[in-house]
């Protein structure tokens, strides 16, 4: 399946990557070659084969729904780009 | 001291031949003197290391030292280390000091090891040559015109050059084994789930696994003893007893059945690499092993399946870098969307963006079944190939990579680079353990023999590798550093 300029821009928007038109043109070539390689999978007979998500077919263990982590807000916010009074600051969202 | 294995270093410390401070000082001096040539470290934690070394010496004087007390190590810069920059080779995390330690770091610190610093790597572990690092490429200590392999190239180069006696790496598609092969050291990728991934920055969560990179299989066994085990903080880590991996190293190999996958000796394999690998297999025959040909019929589909699954998981894992909570933020964002888009576009490198775009595309509406689901189905077939092979043989052997280290700056096409990982990628898809062991040289560059075993077969793999290292001395060779 080929990838086109519009597909690259769509994926970039979904992934919140601010690439420009010229970048997208460049990625069309690279991504097309990758998808061309990947397309070989379409020829493999997988009729009746269950998808494998975890190499040991393990399932997620469950635990009681209890708070077990200590509050380390200050430590975690120490590496944030912009905080004030314990909040993360971002540009105004609601006018 | 830099020519000693970890096992010998542990002995020397126990006998009082040198202190941890002397040892640590020695390695720090070597990093200072030589690393400008190799660029194998992103961050050197000299002062902290000496403080830790003194603590280890005090502990030893009090008769409380464990086997790894005072032993210096380096960590790939993908492992979170509290209050120390953890960059993952990316501009995105250039300013990120981890607020906590990865579980393996915590375990190794508890064992008394001394952290020398954080090693260079391909950005977010995406690469096979260490050329995608924000901090510049790493150079191969055997020949600085060549790449060290990747993505754990800094760890491999540091150990090969004697700048650290051992280092930790991670392996998602070959990132421990291929650089170990290119740099002439021993590197083990454990079974998926054997070592906790908590605090190991995620690339492709169903494939990533941390492991030791050192000068011998015995050294890897010592480190794996301290690293392995269930971790309640990693739900994919496996609750299963950890054996003492050093206990079985000396078991004789008489009767060992080695399978040679015919797909690993086909087109594209460099003749010099094949020669060295076949020589190594002859050594095994002389130790009493028998060799049979086997087939892993889905081998050719491993690289395509990987380049659906790994980028898909990466696109999801890397969505956390939003410029809000940590990491790079662009200047003067106009609005929230602009903040996300510019922060991410400015701070991710080309290869990372490529993989995010591919992963986002293949997971998007209308493409999911054709790509991701199909790749997961093929993944089951690939795993089945290995399960079938291990019905007939104890281990599989072949080359770790089709060539020796290639020239830095030479690869233009990403797909050509991806195909380099043909012999390592299937192992991650199947979740089995694999080790690369130095097996000689071709035109001056090290060749790696890859040995594969069934799930949780690490003890046997290390035994098989160790016996070869008792019969050969490739693993203890080091490049001359004038």
From TrEMBL, chain A:
Belongs to the GatC family. Heterotrimer of A, B and C subunits. This is Aspartyl/glutamyl-tRNA(Asn/Gln) amidotransferase subunit C. Its EC number is 6.3.5.-. It catalyses: L-glutamyl-tRNA(Gln) + L-glutamine + ATP + H2O = L-glutaminyl-tRNA(Gln) + L-glutamate + ADP + phosphate + H(+); L-aspartyl-tRNA(Asn) + L-glutamine + ATP + H2O = L-asparaginyl-tRNA(Asn) + L-glutamate + ADP + phosphate + 2 H(+). InterPro entries: Asp/Glu-ADT_sf_sub_c, GatC. It holds the Pfam family GatC. Allows the formation of correctly charged Asn-tRNA(Asn) or Gln-tRNA(Gln) through the transamidation of misacylated Asp-tRNA(Asn) or Glu-tRNA(Gln) in organisms which lack either or both of asparaginyl-tRNA or glutaminyl-tRNA synthetases. The reaction takes place in the presence of glutamine and ATP through an activated phospho-Asp-tRNA(Asn) or phospho-Glu-tRNA(Gln). It comes from Larsenimonas suaedae. It is an enzyme of class 6 (ligase). Keywords: ATP-binding, Ligase, Nucleotide-binding, Protein biosynthesis.
């Amino acid at each position: 399946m080929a990838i086109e300029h519009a597909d690259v821009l769509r994926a970039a928007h979904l992934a919140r990557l601010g690439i420009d038109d010229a970048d997208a043109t460049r990625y069309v070539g690279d991504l097309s070659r990758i998808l061309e390689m990947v397309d070989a999978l379409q020829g493999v007979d997988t009729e009746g084969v269950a998808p494998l998500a975890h190499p040991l077919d393990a399932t997620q263990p469950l635990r009681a729904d209890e708070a077990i982590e200590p509050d380390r807000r200050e430590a975690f916010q120490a590496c944030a780009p912009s905080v004030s009074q314990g909040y993360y600051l971002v540009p105004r969202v609601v006018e | 001291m830099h020519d000693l294995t970890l096992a010998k270093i542990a002995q020397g410390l126990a006998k009082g031949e040198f202190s941890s401070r002397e040892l640590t000082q020695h390695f720090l001096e070597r990093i200072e003197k030589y690393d400008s040539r190799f660029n194998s470290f992103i961050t050197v934690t000299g002062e902290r290391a000496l403080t830790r070394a003194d603590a280890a010496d005090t502990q030893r004087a009090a008769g409380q030292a464990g086997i790894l007390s005072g032993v210096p190590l380096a960590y790939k810069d993908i492992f979170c280390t509290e209050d120390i920059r953890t960059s993952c080779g990316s501009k995105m995390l250039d300013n990120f000091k981890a607020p906590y330690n990865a579980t393996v770091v915590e375990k190794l610190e508890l064992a008394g090891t001394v952290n020398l610093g954080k090693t260079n790597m391909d950005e977010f572990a995406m690469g096979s040559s260490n050329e995608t690092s924000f901090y510049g490429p790493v150079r191969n200590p055997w020949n600085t015109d060549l790449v060290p392999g990747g993505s754990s190239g800094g760890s491999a180069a540091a150990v090969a050059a004697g700048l650290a006696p051992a280092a930790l790496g991670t392996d998602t598609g070959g990132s421990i084994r291929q650089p170990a092969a290119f740099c002439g050291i021993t590197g083990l990728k454990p079974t998926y789930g054997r070592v906790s991934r908590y605090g190991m920055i995620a690339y492709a969560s169903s494939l990533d696994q941390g492991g030791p990179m050192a000068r011998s299989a015995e050294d890897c066994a010592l480190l794996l003893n301290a690293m392995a085990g269930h971790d309640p903080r990693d739900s994919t880590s496996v609750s299963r007893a950890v054996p003492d991996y050093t206990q079985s190293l000396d078991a004789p190999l008489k009767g060992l059945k080695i399978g040679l996958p015919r797909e690993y000796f086909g087109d594209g394999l460099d003749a010099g690499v094949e020669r060295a690998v076949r020589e190594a297999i002859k050594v095994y025959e002389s130790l009493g092993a028998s060799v049979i040909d086997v087939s892993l019929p889905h081998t050719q589909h491993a690289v395509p399946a990987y380049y659906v699954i790994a980028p898909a998981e990466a696109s999801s894992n890397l969505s956390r870098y939003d410029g809000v909570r940590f990491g790079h933020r662009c200047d003067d964002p106009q609005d929230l969307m602009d903040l996300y888009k510019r922060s991410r576009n400015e701070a991710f490198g080309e290869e990372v963006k490529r993989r995010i775009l591919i992963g986002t595309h293949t997971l998007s509406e209308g493409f999911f079944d054709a790509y991701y689901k199909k790749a997961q189905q093929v993944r089951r077939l690939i795993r089945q190939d290995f399960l079938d092979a291990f019905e007939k043989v104890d281990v599989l052997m072949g080359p770790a990579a089709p060539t020796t280290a290639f020239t830095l700056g030479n690869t233009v096409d990403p797909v050509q680079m991806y195909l380099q990982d043909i012999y390592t990628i299937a192992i991650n898809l199947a979740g089995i353990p694999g080790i690369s062991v130095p097996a000689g040289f071709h035109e001056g560059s090290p060749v790696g023999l890859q040995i594969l075993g069934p799930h949780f077969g690490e003890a046997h793999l290390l035994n098989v590798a160790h016996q070869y290292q008792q019969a050969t001395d490739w693993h203890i060779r080091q490049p001359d550093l004038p």
